[in-house]
Amino acid sequence: MTPQKKESFCIPAQNRTQVTFRRAIQSPGKRRARVQRMLWSPIMATVLVTVLTLGASAQNKPATGLTASVNVGTGDYSVTSRALAWQFRGSVGSPLKNVVRATGRDTLGSFHSIRFDWSGNGVPITGQIKTYDLRPIARFQLTYDKATQHPTLSFPNFTSLPTGLLPFSYREFRYAPPQFAAGDYGTPWLLFDDHLDAAILSPAGGFQVTVLSGDGQKTAGVALRGTINSVPAGYSANSILVLDSGISHVFADWGAALNLIQGRSRPSNEADRSLQYLGYWTDAGAHYYYNFDPQLGYATTLLQEIQHLHSSGIPVKYLQLDSWWYQKDNLGPDGQPLQPRQSNRPNPRPTFAPARWNVTGGTWLYEASHTLFPKGLDAFHQQLGIPFVAHGRYIGEDSPYHDRYRIAGIAPIDPNYWHYVAAYLRNNGVFNYEQDWLGYIRQYSGFDTDLRVGDEFFDNMAAAMKAQRLTMQYCSAEPDMFLQGTRYSNLTTIRVSNDRFVRARWHDFLFTSQLAGALGIWPFADNATSQDVNAMLLQALSAGPVGFGDEMGQENRENLMRTARADGVIVKPNTPLIPIDRDYLDGALGRLVPMLGYTHSKEGGVTTAYVFAFAPTPQDQGPVEFQASDVGLRGKVAVYDYFAHRLTVVPAGGSFHGDLENDQASYYVLATPGSSGIAFLGDQDDFVSSGRMRIRNVVDSSKQLTVTVVFAQSENDVTLHGYAQFEPQVSVRSGESRPMHYDASTGEFSVAISPDQKAPLTSQNSWEPPVRNVVVTLRRP
């Protein structure tokens, strides 16, 4: 194309609705003032005519996406959102050359782009900005046109941001803990204001080598890590800016865009056995972590534990094998000898003779210890009858693998190594590979200095596991590794809190679940004791794995079976538990109030919401308050306090008020009356009362509500409940109901349903055990 000669160029974005334009241009007060300041800024003065002309060419439809502009003479550029009345401005610091405006289409849809050249520190550079017709997204690309030593340029490099922004990011540390600050490393930045309008700026590729810089309030930039030695000619650094109204909305927009850019298919929350079924875990915090009955041996101890669980009616369907199962050296990731293991338990575990299995350094040989499994791992698998999640560490300094494969520091990057590991796992009953120690692997393997090493490690791991039909879980990941996961469709789960899921983990678990969930990776809280009812509840609400590691005989069957059916299938929501938007503002401003997390079940256009409220610290006391709109509902809402067994009806536009209960936490199930006048709350006993593994095929009409209740083969009854201003009439197909209980003072109803035990069993999909389906209809009188 022929370069344009106008002084300024703008990229229009097509429009979703006219309502948003009126909000930006016609709303009174603060937002109108922000629009006026934005439009008449010096940089935009030469741009305004072009913006309006391009808007008119789009049949006078106002822009609800983003608009980008550049100034050829100064090198200034900006990205503007009319919907939010926000503008991000920066400059390359020198005049632009070869400016080309174009339109096109890519995986995010139809776009407008500006491409231009300049010289940065004597290096020829090409930049590009894209904005999209139907997405509130801008993409940036900086390309080094010749090989460059120690590249340091930032693009974008915003030096003017909307006023009043509050920054939030994730620390460069294991499990990506949240912080209300802008981290200068590979993390997304969330920038939001007191209206909860929000932006996310992050890398859009090269996740191991691309970082952010600035303070998130006045400046924000994206560049390669300062430790990168060199880049070849043609290397590009890519980033993305997403703006939307509402923090949960901007996270969803951003995560969806990154997956599309990377070409990843998001796995469903039934994508592997760890997401489908209850599991028993032996990792840190579990009773059998580097611990077994010396008279039985490790394999027999675990065999008897699984047999005990099954005989107790706890249907675990897989076993996690932590690092104890394979052979290791006694060197830490830094190559230094490790101290002997110490026990801080009140009743110390047995002391075992030093052996390759019983040290906690790097992998020496990734094969089952012959001391623990004399007949091999597959023989144990056959005897046990359930498959494994298998843990993996870094490569030890004295491992023989250094002579066989390419190892960068402590990271295996050779595809042959990963093919060997994946085949071994597949042949020994493993369905999911858990890569642990990721933060240490990055630190000691040159990810920060070489453009290729990080990608080789992650890419070759994922490709080999995929070839063997294995899924993956990341553990001890830092924020850039969450983003890296958008490259791999077989990465199903990721740890979002530190070892041992206890109360102190709840705060970080909730915020980091938002990061994982936005990227389409199912969060795992880590194993917990089943005696902790709130830990079991939060695992179920996470929509990720539910795993526990109790000592034999200490498990709490009641708590466990609130998370799953009698066949072990987890009853879960559609999406992970995430903070309400207001939690971010409360955290940024230091308000000492309870946190609220929420998630949903959605079936047939009917939504059930689940809200968990808790005090992060003893100082965060106070009432629980929220509106239906805070948790994705509208109108009148029935709020059921799960543990207090109390129903409250909140009128449209009203607020719910409650108190924290045991352990300074409360749990609520919410539903709005549909066309039938019934607010359906689902199974009275399950934590996730309307999860699709229990309630399916919901149809709400003006006269009745119909649902299909799913029963595992050994289940005999389920109690359904909800709210209505009338006593519903019940009819059942393929089962029977007991008498309806209706409380006219509260409007709450409940009815027990049983399946016809002579009805045939059916399977809903290839993995789910056979079930019985009972169709229940609740009618107006």
Keywords:
781 residues; alpha+beta; Beta-galactosidase, Chain A, domain 5; TIM Barrel; Immunoglobulin-like; 3 domains; 9-stranded antiparallel beta sheet; 47 strands; 33% strand
Description:
With 781 residues, the protein is an alpha+beta fold. The chain has three domains: 8-262, Beta-galactosidase, Chain A, domain 5 (Distorted Sandwich); 273-561, Alpha-Beta Barrel (TIM Barrel), CATH 3.20.20; 592-779, Sandwich (Immunoglobulin-like), CATH 2.60.40.1180. Helix content is 19%, strand content 33%. It contains 16 helices and 47 strands. The protein has a nine-stranded antiparallel β-sheet with strand order 5-6-7-8-18-14-13-11-12. A seven-stranded antiparallel β-sheet has the order 1-2-3-4-10-16-15, with helices on one face. Strand 27 (471-474), helix 12 (479-484) and strand 28 (491-495) form a beta-alpha-beta unit. The longest helix is centred in the N-terminal third of the chain and has 16 residues, at 247-262. The radius of gyration is 28 Å and the shape is globular. Mean pLDDT is 91; it is low at 1-63.
- Give the termini distance in whole angstroms: 70 Å
Report the sheet-strand fraction. Answer: 25-35%
CATH class of the largest domain: Alpha Beta
Strand order of the largest sheet: 5-6-7-8-18-14-13-11-12
Please tally the helical runs, counting DSSP H or I stretches of 4 or more residues. Answer: 16
Let me know the average pLDDT: 91
Number of domains: 3
Number of strands: 47
Query: Under the CATH scheme, which architecture of the largest domain would be assigned?
Result: Alpha-Beta Barrel
Ranges where pLDDT stays below 50 over 5 or more residues in a row are 1-63
Q: Give the radius of gyration.
A: 28 Å
Look up the CATH topology of the largest domain: TIM Barrel
Secondary structure: helix percent: 10-25%
Which class do the helix and strand fractions yield? alpha+beta
